[in-house]
From TrEMBL:
Designated name of the protein: Ubiquitin-like protein 4B
Biased composition (Basic and acidic residues): 158-173
Matching PANTHER family: UBIQUITIN-LIKE PROTEIN 4B
Subcellular location: Cytoplasm
Source species: Erinaceus europaeus (Western European hedgehog)
Length: 181
């Protein structure tokens, strides 16, 4: 059967595999065709991460299915012990909160912000991420081709596009809430 395997940034390939093929073997094929190291691959089918020891048929993956590849960063190891480093955003935010709140209140506000952040992340779909990546790549290509803006510089129209994107996300969220009720 033929599968489409695609990366978030738009690269994709078609692979001929058997339903009895293991996920680990599929990752090897992805490595060969898309040059994404196996240890950095998360393969997703219908939002579910595929386990290396399972077969494609275990997930009811059929012909012409689409598999998404999410690249995870390589993990750094320090003396064989896993070190948990706070995210720079949360660390910086904590410093700002400490300037304006008592320590206990700052911790409470930080925890609420983290919780809200996690809830919002749960609502983001692969489709949203693909669209965002596509939009950003298109903006960069247009800016480079016209020579108006240096690569990596901000575009003066970006705030409008961001507002449109946020409005679309709110509208989609409202539709999902209506569907749930």
């Amino acid at each position: 059967m033929l599968l489409t395997v695609k990366l978030l940034l738009g690269r994709r390939c078609r692979l001929q595999v058997s339903g009895q093929e293991s996920v680990a073997a599929l990752k090897q094929l992805v490595w060969q065709r898309l040059q994404v190291p196996v240890e950095q691959q998360h393969l997703l089918f219908h939002g579910q991460i595929l386990a290396d020891d399972k077969r494609l048929c275990d997930y009811s993956i059929g012909p012409n299915a689409s598999i998404n590849v999410i690249m995870r960063p390589l993990e750094e190891k320090a003396d064989s012990a896993e070190v948990h480093r706070p995210q720079p955003l949360w660390h910086h935010l904590r410093q700002v909160l400490d300037k304006h709140f008592r320590p206990q209140d700052a911790e409470e506000v930080l925890q609420l912000l983290k919780q809200e952040h996690e809830e919002r992340l749960q609502k983001v779909s692969l489709g949203h991420l693909e669209q965002l990546a596509h939009d950003l790549l298109m903006e960069e290509e247009q800016a480079e081709s016209t020579g108006e803006v240096e690569p990596g510089a901000t575009d003066s129209t970006s705030p409008h596009k961001e507002e449109e994107r946020e409005a679309a996300e709110k509208e989609e969220g409202a539709k999902e809430e209506e569907a749930d009720q």
